[in-house]
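Task: fold both queries, return tokens.
Query 1:
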Amino acid sequence: MLKTTIGALALAATLPAAAGETRLVRYDDLNLASPAGMERLQRRIDAAARGVCGDENSRRVLGVAAQAGIRACMAEAKAKAARQVTALDPNQARGG
């Protein structure tokens, strides 16, 4: 039987620098019922949040206000992803 939906979380940020930017975080290949699967998903979420909000290297050359904006963006994006992960049915999120 074919899986009709692609397992992905939509990670978005609402700060002006990242307005409208969305990253999909796939999880259809992960077993979210296992600690290892959840750890891999968290790493993917972290990478997507950095892609939307900015990464560690860009923080070094930015001012304090911009760094605070990146931190707020990261926190918001991760919180949104956490709510989506909580809403997942682990019985339907058992990939490889």
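Query 1 returned. Query 2:
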Amino acid sequence: MEAANRGAFEANCKSIGLNIGLPNEQIPNAFITPGLCFKFNYFALRKIHFVMRSVAAVFFPGGFGTLDELFELLTLC
């Protein structure tokens, strides 16, 4: 998701970041608008917020994480 945040940053637009708190693994990327960086403790809540705030979804071939997000989206809609 850093590419989307970076594109918005370079175009002087706001971008949102929904991060999960994992010990020693993930930190928010530097291109997220500071006031729009949200940190979640649970994957399920993060996925629900992705679905609530989205207008559309585009999925490209990926791994199990992509399939997990796709099926979660279909389940929540």
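Both queries returned. Flag for query 2: The first strand starts at residue 17 and ends at 20.
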